[in-house]
Specification:
Layout: H1 3-38, H2 41-49, H3 52-79, H4 86-102, H5 108-120, H6 124-152, H7 161-180, H8 189-206, H9 211-235, H10 242-255, H11 266-277, H12 282-299, H13 302-318
């Protein structure tokens, strides 16, 4: 290995380390700021408020949303030429959710899921790309639904939503234009990458047999997550009407995609701000976010069983 290769590898490792530390610092700093301003009371209130009924509701909703996610993943993977039984996909997705919640970063489970499926189908790159396309499709549908709700229902950000929507339309138009421009060299790396990405986008997401399933599954997932948040809010005593809570829920779900540690950090910060801006109080927002976090964690525990079972089977084969 050359000195240049060693230096490049070291630089990449340093960047990953810096990213992990920055993510932890952002999440920890957000939580510390909330404790400094509001005290520990809202956090404890959220923990105490969670009861068996809330956990049962979250677990039941998670069965539906996880099955929908697995269906979406299976649809995309089949479009890319990889078979994936629905039962296997559901179990793998539960394991992925548990790893995402239990480990820093929020994507470790997805990488693990894509790598394992790729290894089983003898194409790790395709397995990872199928997960990336599947998650990206879910994010796009979530953004569209969030903007639609925020345009219709009152929220603290309603005035800015039309500008955000126009900006996103501009970005989409720019990307579409860039993909149609002829590259300087037809055989260049960019041209090959663009052709491969366009082919996978068409076959995995935009094909006639794929996009209705992907869109429906993604919409049901967003609805399920929003319903879980509303249940968390009701559990801690929020009596605001659904028309007020739904936009706040979608704002919080969007913030949950920011760098976090096991889901914690930006979610609590956004909930505190959104509830305060809506006149519900930052403390009640933090309590809602904590209750929601606990409910999501418990709902993802079947993934721990899937992970443990897999380790036992691997250990048995190794013995």
């Amino acid at each position: 290995m050359t000195a240049a290769a060693v230096h490049a590898g070291s630089g990449s490792s340093d960047r990953r380390t810096a990213w992990r530390r920055g993510r932890v610092a952002l999440a920890g700093g957000t939580l510390a700021l909330l404790v400094w301003h509001l005290g520990t009371g809202p956090f404890l209130d959220g923990l105490r408020a969670v009861d068996g009924a809330a956990l049962a509701a979250a677990t039941g909703i998670a069965v539906v949303t996880t099955t929908c996610c697995a269906w979406r993943w299976r649809t995309v993977a089949r479009g890319l030429g990889a078979e994936l039984p629905l039962g296997t996909a559901v179990a793998a997705y539960y394991r992925s959710i548990f790893l995402n919640v239990a480990l820093p970063g929020g994507i470790v489970g997805d990488v693990h899921r894509g790598f394992r499926h790729g290894r089983e189908t003898r194409d790790v790159g395709r397995g990872l790309r199928a997960v990336a396309w599947e998650r990206s499709a879910g994010q796009v549908v979530q953004v569209v639904l969030t903007l639609a709700v925020l345009l219709v229902l009152p929220s603290p950000v309603r005035a800015a939503v039309p500008l955000v929507a126009l900006a996103l339309l501009g970005v989409v138009a720019g990307v579409a234009l860039a993909t149609r421009l002829r590259p300087a060299a037809a055989g260049s790396r960019w041209a090959r990458w663009r052709a491969a990405a366009a082919r996978e986008l068409h076959d995995g997401l935009l094909a006639r047999r794929a996009w209705p399933a992907v869109a429906l599954a993604s919409a049901l997932v967003v609805a399920g997550h929003a319903a879980t948040f509303v249940i968390a809010a009701r559990t801690v005593g929020v009596s605001a009407p659904l028309s007020q809570l739904l936009p706040l829920a979608l704002l919080v779900l969007a913030a949950a995609a920011l760098p976090n540690v096991g889901g914690w950090g930006p979610r609590e910060g956004m909930t505190a701000w959104a509830f305060a801006a809506a006149g519900l109080g930052a403390s009640l927002g933090v309590a809602t976010a904590v209750a929601y976090g606990v409910m999501v964690l418990v709902a993802g525990l079947p993934g721990a069983a899937v992970l443990a079972t897999g380790r036992l089977r691997e250990g048995g084969r190794g013995g």
